Amino acid sequence: MELMRFPLHLPGWKNADNDGLSVIATDIGGTKTNLGWFVSENHKMVLKEEATYQSRDYSSFSDIIKDFIKNYKLELPDVLSIGVAGPVVDGKCITTNLPWSLDVSLLKNELRINRVEM
């Protein structure tokens, strides 16, 4: 297990309040999408699971998230943090190298995750 200082910018959350926080952190690329499941323990993020998916094998980003949760038997995270190449305006982004349109509000509803940051 890899220990990390809290690697994410989550407005309104303080490290002291984060123990038990679960996060799926993602990096979307035109070729591959990397995912990590982190849980905050003793004010540090601990990487519990990680995976790489071939982006073009999926019709949407949410399908990758669903597969990751299912394949690793994870609970829904407290936070989904998304790194994506392309401009994010009002919580929306059209990926530059994939035919995906990302919308924070739609992802929250579809994936049933209360906090989505992009």
Kindly describe this structure:
Helix content is 16%, strand content 39%. With 118 residues, the protein is an alpha/beta fold. A hairpin with a 3-residue loop joins β2 and β3 (32-41). The longest helix is centred in the middle third of the chain and has 11 residues, at 61-71.
Strand order of the largest sheet: 1-4-3-2-5-8
Helix-strand topology string: EEEEHEEEHE
What structural class do you assign from the helix and strand content?
A: alpha/beta
Biggest sheet character: 6 strands, mixed
Helix content: 10-25%
Key traits:
118 residues, alpha/beta, globular, disordered N terminus
Question: What is the element layout, followed by pairings?
Answer:
Elements: E1 2-4, E2 22-28, E3 32-41, E4 44-54, H1 61-71, E5 79-84, E6 92-94, E7 101-103, H2 104-111, E8 115-117
Parallel strand pairs: 2-5, 5-8
Antiparallel strand pairs: 1-4, 2-3, 3-4, 6-7
Give a nutshell description of this structure:
The protein is α/β, with parallel strands linked by helices and 118 residues long.
